[in-house]
Amino acid sequence: MMVIYLMGFAVMFSLAVNSDRTTTPVEFMASISPFILTIDFFFRFLAQQTPAQLIKPYMLLPIPKYTCIESFILSSLFTWGNLIWFCMFIPFAIMSIIFSEGLFVTINFLLFYWLLIMTNSQWYAIVRTLINKTLLYWMIPLLFYVLVYFPVIIDKGGKNGWETLLDMHGLVGAYINNGSILPCLGACVLLMVVVWVNRKIQYHHIYQEISKNEKTTLHHVSRFTFLEHFGEIGQYLQIEIKSLIRNKNPRKSYIFSTAAILVLTVVIIFTDVYDNVYMTNFWCIYNYLIYGSIMLIKIMSYEGNYIDLLMTHHENILKLLRAKYIFYSLILLFPFILMLPLVLYGKWSFFMLISYGVFTAGFQYFVLFQMAIYNKTTLPLNAKLMSKNGIENNYVQVVAQMGTMFVPLFLVIFIERTLGNTVAYAIMFTIGICFIATHKLWLRNIYQRMMKRKYILIEGWHSTR
């Protein structure tokens, strides 16, 4: 789909440039390069892993200390992921550059962007490694992109800020169009500098994590005694809560999810950008689904660290699943409370808010809990640089996330169009109530299917620890 979209953009940009010769094709592409590189940077968080995430087993081999890191960095430069943008650059060059500007300018253009994309991949690796240590390092890319887009606020010569930004970056395209190799040399030097910095940072952080000694400090242990009245389910609820409090990776996911809900809700309250019927439905469903799509989608992956203990007693896993269902249903109260002001402001319907919350706790969680049958990769509770969070290519997870996000949206919009809002909300509420009322049945079904795949799952959890 991405390749098709990029080729479509190439055709669209080419038609626009060919019909309006106020700027050359190379200058046009150079002017929009900040947007391309920004999109490329943030999309890498979905797929690209840093060398630190894969390198740990190789660091034990008797080879020079930088060899592993250098080999991973070099291999990350020459991957297919760094060529994906050429699905747009090459068709654009064929349709708009090669016949008007010549072969040398075309090669110069493609080489320049290849160097930029490789530089961007190393910039991403640096930022991702630092962010894995602490979220405060998000300030680095934020400040960097503020500086990149700073010309937007500058009005110069009767031009608005966006025109100033486009003209400034278009100058690089003018040099390429005139046959100069200075942009390529500059990009090459920048790439070497960023690779050198990435090499140092990867080495420092990898060895710091491998050789560190944890300092153990005794803390008061919270017992949550009120949960003890619920028997074994209460004990598993305590495990779920303490896992979020004590362990870095689950805690980070919870904080990120909560912050995302908070930010989205504030944006919706104080702006009208999402006030149309499609966005209203989407953001209400999505806000409820954030905890599930970020945390619950990885169900049983953190438990893979101590799965042998859970397997020692009959139906332990079933009780764990029930405790998880109760926990994740209860934390839906947080987005519900946050979104109440939208009802008070008259932007959303209270019935819609209730029905989507019930639908999420029912049907949406029914779908996400199915991942317990397929997740067989252990995710570390505390290790960050060596974690597998960024390298688990579980396409079932992607399908589950996309399905829970968009299928209900299309369903509710269709029902709203045909039967009206109230009927649509009533149907969503009824579906949710049915799945909530039968949660013990479908959780037992999930448990039984897990037991049929028990040895496959255990082998996967063991091998990925």
Description:
The protein is globular. Helices cover 70% and strands 0% of the residues. The chain is an all-alpha fold.
What would you call the shape?
Answer: globular
Overall number of strands: 0
SSE class: mainly alpha
Low-confidence stretches: 385-393
Strand and helix map with partners:
Layout: H1 2-19, H2 25-31, H3 33-43, H4 67-77, H5 86-96, H6 98-101, H7 103-133, H8 139-148, H9 161-177, H10 182-211, H11 231-246, H12 248-270, H13 277-294, H14 307-310, H15 316-330, H16 333-344, H17 350-369, H18 395-419, H19 421-437, H20 439-452, H21 454-463
Helix pairs in contact: 1-5, 2-9, 3-7, 5-7, 7-10, 11-12, 11-15, 12-13, 12-16, 13-17, 13-18, 15-17, 15-20, 16-17, 17-19, 18-19
Notable traits:
70% helix; single chain; 21 helices; 465 residues; mainly alpha
What's the quick description here?
The chain contains 21 helices and no strands.
